[in-house]
Write a structure and sequence with these properties.
By secondary structure, the protein is of the alpha+beta class. It is 31% helix and 29% strand. It is globular.
Amino acid sequence: MKKSAKKNVVAGILVLAAVLVCHPIHGFSEEMPETESLDKSVKEAVKEGAQIVEKKTEVTPLLDAEQSLKKFKRAKAILSSTRDDHDIRGEVVLIQMPDRLQIVVNVSGDITMGNHGIHIHENGSCDDAGSAAGGHYNPHATKHGFLPEEGMEHAHVGDMGNIQVNDLGKGLLKVDLPNVSLTKENPVLGKAVILHEKEDDFGQPTGNAGGRIACGIIEME
């Protein structure tokens, strides 16, 4: 009786399975799209999550670069007009790199359009309308030139060239001074930065750049 009962149960299961294959229970097939939709949503969420992780990975080098940049010494000179009847403002940012000094200059105000000579001078004073700043910073007693291109043998340490000013009186200069530093080799900390009224034509002895229209002292930030 037991063997016969088992055979009947097995047979019944097989019949039920066949019926389900041929005639699915109402609602069973309708659940499948929901399962597929959920699976698709999960995949999309995972994909979006992967994209977020990737974006974070891209930002990391930028953060590292910013942190590395903060490790370098920085100094600044705030430029102001040497004359009471002129309104000239400016900022000179100096960043100490391993083999050079990175410099960014911004100026604005009562400045004529065109090129204007800009140099680091030997003294740290803007008195007497900038005259107290002395001559170009030239510790090696070389001729005047353009340091970024000609090097120490053919230019003064303070020879940064020209900054170009537009018709709105605004100018921007980015320049690297090789083998110059804030406090070690050819140090410029405490020196004056002078903006001139005319273009530096690189003639001797100082570029024929005319009067001193703005001045600022290089100080650590």
